[in-house]
Every structure is written in structure tokens, then in C-alpha cells.
Automatic annotation (TrEMBL):
Annotated segments matching region Disordered: 49-78
Transmembrane intervals: none
Family assignment from sequence similarity: Belongs to the universal ribosomal protein uL4 family.
Keyword Coiled coil: no
Source lineage: Bacteria, Pseudomonadati, Pseudomonadota, Alphaproteobacteria, Rhodospirillales
Pfam families xrefs: Ribosomal_L4
Protein name: Large ribosomal subunit protein uL4
GO molecular function, one term: rRNA binding
Species annotation: Magnetospirillum aberrantis SpK
Quaternary state and interactors: Part of the 50S ribosomal subunit.
Gene3D superfamilies linked to this entry: 3.40.1370.10
InterPro entries, per the entry: Ribosomal_uL4 (IPR002136), Ribosomal_uL4-like (IPR013005), Ribosomal_uL4_dom_sf (IPR023574)
GO biological process: translation
């Protein structure tokens, strides 16, 4: 499929052919959901923790005699029914990550790219470069282009001026091609790829 290539000044500078096996895949929302769950679970810290009965500081002595007191039998003051006692089946430090086959992850990324292309929200940019790291200048250009919520994916390396200028603009993310992922693509309204990014993604996903 062919699409136009524009510049940061919103001028047409040519056309580019997008590979159908990367940008023309059938959209599967179940696959996108699985991939987003995979990414968000993988980045969870998992540092939540409560104390079990073996970790509570306190005596191990039986509070009172088993029989004859007219009270319910108790074996420990560290039990969960007492103030300061243990938590039963509480969270422990663990990893929330789960496995997903590499081919499925690759297909999910191609699906996310294809979904943006199908919605008409995939734009190819000539190059994401600025002569100076001026946030105001870049913000003005993005506003003129109508990009309020946008993810810009560049080639293997980012232009330092563009990366610095975009850093403080809300709802604008900039990634190198190696960092392209399903979650970041879906969380922004518009996806902008440079010509270098298209070449890198096609080489990676074909």
C-alpha cells in the first residue's frame, strides 16, 4: 500500500510503499489485549508484601490454657484475629510477568501498526530532525499538523534536538525504532513513522 510522505512543515515530499505483511495485517483486538496485558504485567514491580505468622515478632507462648476458661481456644497471639497479628494469604514479593511466544509478540506489533493504518492515523514523516532543541518551535509545528496525542517513532537513533524539544510537551512520545511497542502505539491517537523507522520496522517484522 502506498502513502504520502510529509515534512514537519506539513508539505508533501513524496510517496512511500508500505509492506502489506507489516502494515496490512487483519486487526485482532484479542491479540492486542493479550500484548498490552503482557507488557503491563511485565513492568509491575511486585514489591507488595505482608507478614505471615512466622515473621511476626512476639511470644510463641500459648496465651491461656486450652480448657476451663470458658473462652475460645487460642494457640498464639500472633494469629490474624489479634491486633498486630499475621495476614493470611497476603501478597508476597513476586514477578507478575508471564510468557508469550516471540511470534505472537511480533504479530501483535504488526497488528497494532496495521490498526493505525486502517484507521487512517498512520503518518509517514520525511525526518524527525530540528536545527535547535526549541520546545516552543516544535509545539507550534505539531499544533499546525493537528497532532495533539502522538507517538513519533524514528530510525535506529533519535535526533538529539528533536528528543529534547519534545520531552516537555504533554501527550507527545518519541521512540527509536527498536523501542516500538504495542502499548505505546495504542495509548496515543496518532502514530508518526519516519522513513527510517518504516525501513527498520519492515526489516525487523517481515
Amino acid at each position: 500500500m502506498k502513502t504520502n510522505v510529509i515534512s514537519l512543515d506539513n508539505k508533501a515530499v513524496g510517496e512511500i510503499e508500505l509492506a502489506d505483511e507489516v502494515f496490512g495485517v487483519a486487526v485482532r483486538t484479542d491479540l492486542l489485549h493479550r500484548m498490552v496485558s503482557y507488557q503491563l504485567s511485565k513492568r509491575r514491580a511486585g514489591t507488595h508484601k505482608t507478614k505471615g505468622i512466622s515473621e511476626i515478632s512476639g511470644t510463641t507462648k500459648k496465651p491461656f490454657a486450652q480448657k476451663g476458661g470458658g473462652r475460645a481456644r487460642q494457640g498464639s497471639l500472633r494469629s490474624p484475629q489479634f491486633r498486630g497479628g499475621a495476614t493470611i494469604f497476603g501478597p508476597v514479593v513476586r514477578s507478575h510477568a508471564f510468557d508469550m511466544p516471540k511470534k505472537v509478540r511480533s504479530l501483535a506489533l504488526r497488528t497494532a501498526l496495521s490498526a493505525k493504518a486502517a484507521e487512517g492515523k498512520l503518518i509517514v514523516l520525511d525526518q524527525a530532525k530540528l536545527s535547535a532543541p526549541k520546545t516552543k518551535d516544535l509545539a507550534t509545528r505539531l499544533k499546525a499538523l493537528g497532532w495533539g496525542s502522538v507517538l513519533v517513532i524514528d530510525g535506529p537513533a533519535l535526533d538529539d534536538n528533536f528528543a529534547l524539544a519534545s520531552r516537555n510537551i504533554p501527550f507527545v512520545d518519541v521512540l527509536p525504532s527498536v523501542g516500538a511497542n504495542v502499548y505505546d502505539i495504542l495509548r496515543r491517537d496518532t502514530l508518526v513513522l519516519t522513513k527510517d523507522a518504516v525501513a527498520a520496522l519492515e526489516a525487523r517484522l517481515k
